[in-house]
Specification:
The protein has a single domain, classed as L-arginine/glycine Amidinotransferase, Chain A (5-stranded Propeller). Helices cover 25% and strands 24% of the residues. It is built from eight helices and 24 strands. The strands form nine sheets. It has a four-stranded mixed β-sheet with strand order 2-5-6-7. A three-stranded mixed β-sheet has the order 4-3-24. Strands 9-12-13 form a three-stranded mixed β-sheet. A hairpin with a 6-residue loop joins strand 14 and strand 15. Helix 5 runs antiparallel to helix 6. The longest helix has 21 residues.
């Protein structure tokens, strides 16, 4: 492993840091999503579309996974830098977008700070949706992380590329990293497990976690109160539309009960490692089947300068309001955070991704300015 400019630490920006630019992939598969997203972002941040040399397969929408954009800090100055695409083991998939991501960095003068070879057996784990950083925090033991703390996930013995983890540990300021267990997920990225948004208090943030229990409570109440529901085709492995009764049955499954327990353990790790209290967590409704999010996972959202962009949840409606979206709004809305919902079901959800997976951002880290 070699690192460029190793005397200048590479530091990541958190999801609550100010956004200078939002990035998406220009693909006909998500043209409607991009148009709707652009409308939401007006007045908040500019939107840039990357146009990879797709050929006949414009199917890789996952710009979050292709780049980890951060900053190099040294000598009293900072400069934008990134970790390189490392997505191996998937044949032709990802190559066009990875090449486009490298070209984007080159065209912007963004340094790539690590040289490492993609692994042929990464199983999605070397994609940067599996690498996040918390806002600045102090652990329960009293250790301060003024630049935030690196978060990643594992599935049993599979972790992110060891050279990437070693490189981040060498930077020291945002480590030791916190490792979360995503063994119950099919893809298993940390951005499926946790995300951060501003809270009403300028001194704190809220941590979003997926909760099958919250989903079951909302769905059961909707059924009792006579909600209307329009079934939609669900992603594989279900591959069919579910009635509201059937969706509730999935939410009640043993798998979802065990996921709720696993997320309790995740919350404990985050509470200890980041110094969070129970009041800092928001448990958002999400239902899973065989490790895949059946309803869009609202934790996989994009935070942009006081705007929180969630996937439209397409839940049951009571009095003209989506009960799942209303639950999310109730839990996250504050004077520092306005939630909006963007339809990405066909483009992203059916391909096992959500809003955060399909977007990226150049952020100005609050600790540097």
């Amino acid at each position: 492993m070699t690192a460029s400019g190793s005397n200048q630490p590479f530091l990541m920006a958190s999801s609550i840091d100010p956004v200078e630019e939002v990035l998406v992939v220009a693909s006909p598969l998500q043209a409607a999503f991009v148009e709707e997203l652009a409308g939401c972002l007006e007045g908040f941040a500019p939107l840039t579309q990357l146009s990879p040399a797709w050929g006949d397969t414009p199917s890789d929408l996952w710009i979050q996974d292709a780049l980890e954009i951060g900053w190099r800090l040294g000598g009293g100055t900072i400069s934008v830098a990134s970790l390189p695409p490392l997505r191996g083991g998937h044949g032709g998939f990802a190559k066009a977008l990875d090449a486009g991501a490298r070209a984007f960095c080159s065209g912007r003068g963004i340094d790539i700070v690590l040289q490492a070879e993609p692994r042929e057996t990464d199983r999605w784990f070397d994609w940067y949706g599996n690498l996040e950083v918390s806002p600045p925090c102090t652990s329960a033991s009293g250790r301060e992380f003024p630049y935030g703390r690196v978060l990643t996930a594992r599935q049993r013995d599979m972790t992110m590329h060891p050279q990437v983890l070693e490189f981040l540990e060498e930077q020291a300021a945002q480590c030791p990293l916190l490792m979360l267990d995503a063994s119950w997920l099919t893809i298993g990225h940390v951005d499926e497990l946790v995300q951060f948004l501003p809270s009403s208090s300028a001194r704190r943030t809220i941590a979003l976690l997926p909760s099958p229990h919250a989903a079951r409570v909302e769905l059961e109440r909707a059924l009792r109160e006579g909600a209307t529901y329009e079934p939609r085709e669900m992603p594989a492995p279900l591959d069919r539309a579910l009635s509201l009764d059937e969706l509730i049955d999935v939410a009640r499954s043993e798998e979802n009960r065990l996921i709720e327990m696993a997320m309790g353990e995740t919350a404990d790790i985050l509470a200890t490692g980041l110094g969070l209290d129970e009041e800092d967590f928001r448990h958002l409704p999400a239902v899973f089947h065989e490790g895949v999010s059946v309803t869009p996972n609202p934790v996989n959202c994009l935070s942009v300068n006081g705007l929180a962009v969630f996937p439209a949840l397409h839940g049951p409606a009571l009095d003209g309001e989506d009960v799942l979206q209303r639950c999310v709004e109730r839990l996250v809305a504050s004077r520092r955070c306005r939630p909006v919902f963007v339809d990405q079901w066909d483009a992203q959800h059916m391909r096992h991704g959500e809003v955060h997976c399909a977007t990226n951002a150049i952020r100005r880290p609050g600790w540097a300015f």
